[in-house]
Structure formats: C-alpha cells, structure tokens
Amino acid sequence: MLYRLLVPLAARFSPLNVLRYPSFRIVASGLLALVLGMLLGPWFIRELAERQHGASNVREDVPDAHRRKGGTPTMGGALILLCITLPTLLLADLGNRSVWAALTVTLGYGAIGFTDDWLKVVRKNSKGLAPRLKLFWQTAIFVAVFLLFCTDLQFHGRATFPFFGVGGHLDSHVYFPFARRLHPDLRWAYLPFALLVVVGTSNGVNLTDGLDGLAIGPAIVSALTFAVLAWVAGTVMAGFDIARYLYLPHIEGAEELSVFCAAMAGSGIAFLWYNAYPASIFMGDVGSLALGGALGTLAVLTKNELLSAIIDGLFLVEALSVMIQVASFKLTGRRVFRMAPIHHHYELKGWAEPKIIVRFWIVSILLSLASVASLKLR
Question: What's this model's pTM, rounded to 2 decimal places?
C-alpha cells in the first residue's frame, strides 16, 4: 500500500526512492513485524488469558508431563497473522499476484485453525474441527486461490493470470535440487502435486507444534530461507539475471515474496519471545496451519517444491513419524515409536524439553543451509 502510494511521490521527495528497492522493503517488513509483535504481545496474552478463563489447552495425546501447562492461553497464532498481514500490505507491491496468493492461503488456513481452536476453547470440544473437515477446507482454499490467480493456466512451462499485473506465473515443471537438467513437466498432474505440498506442509507444522517454541523456530528458519530463494528467483541487477546464472527458473516479481517472508520471520521472532520454554502462550492451530500453508505456498510459487522437502525437512519427519506409527499399529499391532509425533518419542526417552527443542532447531538450520548450498551445486 505504501509502496503504491509513496513511490510516485519520489520525484518530489527523493528519500522516498528507497521504497523502490525490494531490499529496503524486505528489511523494513521484518523489523515492522518484529516491533508490532513485541509491542502487542503482552496485551494479546492478557486478553486471551481473560477470555479463555484458564481453560486447559493441552492436547490429550501428549505425555503426562504436559498437564502442568494447563491454563496457558492458546490461539497466539492470531498475533502472528496480524504481524504478517500489516507489513505485507504496507510494504509489498500489491499489484503482485504471488503476494496475494501467499497471503490468501495464509489467512484462509489461519481461519481453519481459528475455527478448530475456537471449538476446543469456547465450546469445550476437545476434538475441535474434524480432520476430514480440515482437509476439505484446506483443499477448497487451495482450489479457490488457483481459480482466482491461475484460471488461464497453460502447461508446457508457464501459466498466465487474468488478474493483477506483476509476477505470479506458475510453472508446471518440477525442478530437482542438485540436478539442473532434471525438470520434468507434470502437466495436469502438477495441480494435485502442488496441493500435496501445501496441505502436507500445513499439517506437518501443525503436528510439530507440540513443545514450547518447537514449531516457530524452524518456521522462522524456513521463512528466511524462502526469502533468499524468492529474491534470487526474481532479481535482475544491472541486466544480470541471478536465477539464470544459477540455472533456476526466473520468476517475474518473485522478489516481492521476500517482503512477505521477512514479515513471517519478524512476527515469528516476536512470538518466540513469548512462546519460548516455558511458554506464556501457545500458537494453536490458527498459527500452525497458517504458517505451514504459507511455507507450502512459497515452495510452489518459487518453484522449490522438491527442495522444500529439505528446507521443511523437520516438519516432514514429524509428519512421517505419525504416518509410520499409525500404519505399523494397524498392520502389526506394534508401535515403532514410544509416542508420535517423534518429539514425544524423545520426551519419553528422558530428553528434557529444552534439549529436544534446541536440537530440532539445529537440525532445521542445517537443512536450510544445505538448501541454500544447492543453489550452486547444480
């Protein structure tokens, strides 16, 4: 919004020229989200605590040690969404279709999570929204975003969009990391594949959100990684196309997604201040489903669907641990892990909660560094 309003005034007031540069707006977006989150955090926690009246927001399928966390307010993800949305609307180019696609999925998935949390807290329904309904609405929002932004989708390379004016093309090829010549065209099979990436990442973050700060830490790392990848994919400096040099697809306007990513990282850092062990507030599904949906959408929009399996590898492992546990129990009657998701397995092995959290963060950082390294190893 500010970008569109103030840039035309740069001819009269030269300091406004800084808004022309995505690099400035990326940093400003992250700082604004961080400051907003830090300032609003204490008030937000007090309001949620009053409205939830000390209700127990601890999941039932967790180790007994978690019972002591009863009374901690949940739905803190709403603060994250606010701190993502405002900087993005103020500092991103709102003529960019990719920005609107990412923001729509994030807020839409946040609405699903909000409904789930609301049922649990207000209606005292411990099960919340039925898993099938969650999956239905996640799919519906993905399809709605596709129809809104991609109705003229044409395969064999590029999709064109009927609305807005900058960026947002969707490529039906899938690009393999560490193999620059391997990028098969999935054609119409790309749509269910993209849906799997978005919904799978959303649910992976949701499953990871079981310890204080466990999900938000890797989410911050992933958001920063996608900020780098989006900037690389869309930036041309003095005629030099960085993406082409690195054998990546150039995506017009992708650098604007870095503004969105920076807002995600800034809001996540602010939330971590209050969510770090021992947590003063829980993220809730309103945050975990939204952040996962955002990361999955970024993977699709920046053409890093397969690389996201590395970037978001921690979330993938958490989701796989649940699937393996369920499949093993149904087929053999035995459990592979003491409890799933896998972070509870380590809890029951005697690992202290802060140790699990920090070690999982370290793994996430290593995976993201490997992902960035793949830019040159092609």
Answer: 0.91
